[in-house]
Amino acid sequence: MSVSRRTVLATAAGAAALGASAAPAVAADGPAGRVPAPTLRKLRAAADYAVDKLHAVAPNVTAFPVGTKFEKWTYSQNGDWVGGFWPGTLWMAWLYSKDDAFRTWALASAQKLAPRQYDTGTHDLGFLFYPSWVTAWRLTGDDAWRTGALRAADSLIQRYNPRGRFIRAWGALGDERNAGRVIIDTMMNLDLLAFASDRTGDAKYLDIAVEHARTAQRVFLRPDGSTPHVYDFDPASGAPIGPNTVQGYSPTSCWSRGQAWGLYGFTTMYRRTGNREFLTTARRLADFAIGALTPDHVPVWDYLAPQQPYDIKDASAGAVMACGLLDLSVATGGQAYRDVALRLLTALAETCLTRNSARADAVVARCTRNRPSEDGVEISLPYADYYLLEGILRVLQPQDVDRAIDLSTV
User: Fold this and answer.
1) pTM, to two decimals
2) Of the residues 48, 80, 185, 327, which is catalytic?
3) Confidence label for 34 from pLDDT (cuts 50, 70 and 90)
4) Is 406:398 a contact under the CB 8 Å cutoff?
5) Which residues pair with 64 in a beta bridge?
6) Are 328 and 334 in contact (CB under 8 A)?
7) How far is CA 294 from CA 39, 318, 344, 377, 378, in A?
8) Out of 99, 119, 124, 327, which one is annotated catalytic?
9) Could you give the angle at the alpha carbon of 57 between the alpha carbons of 355 and 41, nearest 5°?
10) CA 180/CA 171 separation, integer angstroms
11) How far apart are CA 147 and CA 205, in angstroms?
12) What's the pLDDT band for 33 if we cut at 50, 70, 90?
């Protein structure tokens, strides 16, 4: 890190943000327990690295990173399903460094998502608008961001199928293909609906989120706590058909990032509703994933694929899982979940950053987008960078993360 960047961080976040040289000699308190000093040093060093990398790369980013090819970002102009993560990552960098360049870049990037608030063709509106527009409203108070996020929620609820009580994942509303397809990822899009009910006073948004979560709880959760990626329904009658997969090894396997989406999503739904069944489900998903981790604490891409535990890794699953476990630790008062989350974040910081590459645009390496399609195997992905920083800030600066994404529980 250059002297000038260290000065920015020192001014912004105090001596604690300077990394190993300024880390305390004793453990520090977190919201659910103490964090060992060596862990704090590693997490601060990783955050410092991320902020420096983002500061170097962001001036040349004019669209939305979707993944890397030969270590350089490839882009989508409209954001695809991942557009919210780039402005979200910039917001996390701003919270850590207080460098207003990140704030400026985050706002400019989020504004490019404006046309998507009317997009009724995807379930991913939570991924698109929560880390970008909801966070922008929470951190700036500018009601234009809230208004756009509410419009996105209006678009999302049009995908609700009242017969099957689920939110359709893919395809235009008038397209019969995939009309009954539900995926575990949608659990992470429900918080946009909770936000909409909270801001408008209209219960319809949260009611739909709750119905979808209850359906997902019923059809995705297996007795051992694992989940499939996909579950299909008859869209006309709402009758269940059965499990399937697109990104997992098989309908009976357990795609690790999907398991992490479910863990985090059900914990969030518990926090928004107080429904303890959602908390119980989150714990079961967490317990399975923890039991499936390899000793290096970097998840394989599918926990039940034949080659595990000696298989391709997905660091993005580890970053999402760490955030979900930190959330779950607070929700349950359980230090054990926090301990695993810290080991996950430490493993990513030690073994999955792009430190050894002078050309890398991203922060986190060793991610896998879609193994069955051989699409993006062990590359970098924008959501890995986002959730790594969110996880680290949940440990170092939980009050700032609360300001950005709302960690409250009803």
Assistant:
1) 0.93
2) 185
3) confident
4) no
5) 76
6) yes
7) 19, 11, 11, 19, 17
8) 124
9) 40
10) 10
11) 15
12) low
Q: Residue 161 corresponds to which tokens in the numbers above? A: 């199928």
Q: Give the tokens for residue 302.
A: 């599918």
Catalytic annotation on 124?
Answer: yes
Give the Å distances, CA to CA, from 279 to 266, 275, 341, 398: 7, 7, 17, 21
Residues 209, 126: Cα–Cα separation, whole Å:
12
185 is catalytic: yes
Alpha carbons 401 and 405: distance in angstroms, whole number:
6
Over the chain, what is the mean pLDDT? Answer: 93
- What does the buried/exposed string (b/e) look like for 3-24 if buried means 16 or more CB atoms within 10 Å of the residue's CB? eebbebbeebbeebbbbeeebe
Long-range contacts of 102-105 (CB under 8 A, 24+ apart): 102/54, 102/55, 102/58, 103/139, 105/58, 105/59, 105/61
Residue 11 has pLDDT above 50, yes or no: no
Structure tokens at 77: 């102009």
* 8 Å CB contact between 230 and 244: yes
Q: Supply 346's token pair.
A: 């430490």
Closest CA to 348 of 334, 366, 330: 366
pLDDT in the model for residue 30? 52
pLDDT in tens, 120-140: 999 999 999 999 999 999 999
